[in-house]
Amino acid sequence: MSLSQFDSGASLFSGGGFMASQAAQPTDSTLSKNRASHGVLPLTVKQIKDAYQSSEDKSTLFVDGIGIPNVCLLGIVMNKMEKATDVSFALDDGTGRVNVIRWVNETADRNEVAVIQNGVYVLVIGSLKSLHGKLQVTSFSIRLVVDYNEVPLHFIHCIQIHAEHTRKKIGSPFQLPGNSVNSNHILIGVRESRPAANHPSIPTSKGNAEDDIYKLVLDVFEEPESLTSDHGLHVDEVVKKLGIPLNKIKEAIDYHVDVGHIYSTIDDYHFKSACTS
Amino acid sequence: MDTSSPAVFVNAELLKMYMGRRVRAVIQVSRNEGGLMIGQSTDGQQLTVKGGAPQTFPVSHYVEVIGIADGNQSIRAEMCTDFGERFGTCILTLVAFSLILSLYVIFLVASLFEVAQVFISKKT
User: Fold this and answer.
1) Which of A227, A195, A187 has the alpha carbon at shortest distance from A211?
2) What is the pLDDT of residue A76?
3) Cα angle, residue A202 at apex, residues A197 and A208 outer, rounded to 5°
4) Using the 8-state DSSP alphabet, how is residue A173 labeled?
5) Residue A94: what are its φ and ψ, rounded to 5°?
6) Do A148 and B9 make contact, defined as CB atoms within 8 angstroms?
7) I want to staple A89 with a disulfide (CB 3.0 to 4.6 A). Which of A80, B2, B6, B70 is the partner?
8) Could you tell me the CATH number of the domain that includes residue A68?
9) C-alpha span between A190 and A166 (Å, rounded)
10) Under an 8 A CB cutoff, do B6 and A52 touch?
11) Nearest residue of B to residue A46 by CA position?
12) What is the 3-state secondary structure (H, E, C) of A193-220?
């Protein structure tokens, strides 16, 4: 469910369209089979640190309300140390530094770490581990950055994933994935630009109110009951649930159909969410 | 895990807001003058970079500078990375440019061939 959404979100240019309807590819082909189904989340060190500090159970971290599977970090190598069995360094991505360790067992591993030098940009994929109270990344893939357009691309990717998760969180303000949503309790006018902020604000312009109606309508279609139904929801049912005028609902539905969030089923009045989770 | 010294992404306008703080900026090198690197920021203004890498970077290359903002248009560099010439270059522009170039070459070859034909026919 949520993990496959990560994989869809992790693919480039996926936007908010077909969230989990496509079979997702792991971002690194060297992922072991054990990790291939867990997904990779592009994050900054600051996001990881905030998640670590705000979690009570340090063994399970949540970013934007989503459990972190594997992480993808991009930054500069600092203080590289080579030992017989591992290579460790600090990765500085501009938001902070985190320790990364790469266990070296085979020649291929040694070749992979040989190109890493202090001061170079690398892309690290690994999992988060807490060791003696300190968080570190146990990496299973380290790649040198050759095209430096990857640097802003990674940050844009982090922003995109955060925006996607925050948008979903607005629909489920206090819930972790899997809980049902009561659309009547959705906070009106919450701005997406502030991360992890759930306090409501009054919409100050017509544009804000329209966006909120679109979100409300989409959330109705993404309720578990709606997802299980084959035919989806009739437009009138959405009107009854939200108490918003029919023309506004139709406008929101047209928008979501254009973007790809929902599609019509048995006739022009029944729609279903494209999200398959 | 240490987040005590983040480097803020800045252009020339934002640099003024982070005086004395660690910043990072990408500039396109205009010239090198005795230890100073002068370039254009992403918002089209001139920035001066002091210190940093001992080597000079080629003109027109994009260089990322990480350091301390110590002036309205100046950064005291701790680290510089050469991002090359194609940083931020739109791939479509490159494709379009190479297409135009190849068409020009074809036209040139065709013209030379025609000229050669005329020359040969005149001789005979």
Assistant:
1) A187
2) 94
3) 90
4) T
5) 95, -25
6) no
7) A80
8) 2.40.50.140
9) 10
10) no
11) B3
12) CCCCCCCCCCCCCHHHHHHHHHHHHHHH
The 10 Å Cβ neighbour count of residue A188 is 15
Both tokens of A146, joined, read 């050759």
If we measure between CA atoms, which residue out of B36, B35, B39 comes closest to residue B15?
B39
State which residues form the domain around A45: 41-146
C-alpha–C-alpha distance, residues B30 and B39, integer Å: 5
Strand partners for A136? A99, A129
Largest CA distance in chain B: 84
In a domain, A10, yes or no: no
Query: How many CB atoms sit inside 10 A of residue A156's CB?
Result: 12
Tokens of B27: 């500039």
Tell me whether residue A204 is in a domain: no
Residues in B lying within 8 Å of A, measured between beta carbons: 1-4, 6-7, 9, 24, 62, 64, 66, 79, 81, 83-84, 86-88
Place of tokens 């013209």: B111
Look at chain A and report how many structural domains it folds into: 2
What is the model's pLDDT at position A130?
80
Q: Which of A114, A146, A178 is the last residue of a domain?
A: A146
Predicted pLDDT of residue A38: 60
pTM of the model: 0.57
* CB-CB contact of B43 with A136 (8 Å): no
Rounded average pLDDT over A114-124: 91
Token duo for residue B41: 């920021």
Tell me the per-residue pLDDT of A35-56, one tens digit each, with 9 for 90 and over: 444 688 899 999 888 887 777 6
Chain B hits for A46, CB-CB cut-off 8 Å, are 3, 6
| Residue that finishes a domain, picked among A96, A122, A146 | A146
Say what the ipTM of the complex is: 0.71
